[in-house]
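Most newcomers find our protein records easier to grasp once they have seen one. To make this concrete, we reproduce a full record directly below:

===
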Amino acid sequence: MVKLVTKFNRYIELKDVIVKSDGRIILDIPHAVIPADRICACIGPNGAGKTTLLKLLDGLIGPDIGAVTYSTAGVRSSLVLHHTPMIKASARTNLAMVKDSDSSIDSIQIDAVIEQIGLSHLANSPAHKLSAGERQKLCLGRAILQKPNLVLLDEPTANLDPNTTEQVEEMIRQFKLQGSDVIFTSHQLAQVQRLAEYIIFIDQGQIKEKGPVGPFFADPQTLAAKRYLHQELLSD
């Protein structure tokens, strides 16, 4: 195990993890070391447990059994779920909601971030009336304001047009450049290959395969991964 974890400068280790919902096992991970020092993509079929894994890494939920540990102390994570509700208020007010958890955030920082995400012209517009792409940028803006060590993104470009997808992908790269570790889920294999450096393949609540992106796509080692890649590439 020592050789396994020393490959990564920062990592998250899961031991004997079981997560249940309504008596059903959603995640069953005897042992896994997930790198947190490179952009990591979590892929797999619908219902495989990807979103649950992100919630677990964020601490939003805890394991029913087992433990999740981080190689560095004081990890600040920010989870952006695929469907993040907006309150019926302006875009700026929705962005400023993060002040509830961090009172050190001021108006200057909020204005700077709303400009950074390209929504200054919509700052006073009702957030719930923004397009899907604009709402997603707003959610990412909240994450930027929180200055997390770890950014967890669930399907960050689902249902977005190509132009907005490109903008959101650039924001994800910026998180990494600014020192935040990134783990995201995606069904878009081309996007995964553009953004990620490391793959976690999850199926039926289990991490079936993981490793660097290139070797995974070139020569997956498990039958489950081979089937998944074949099906997804056919659907594309």
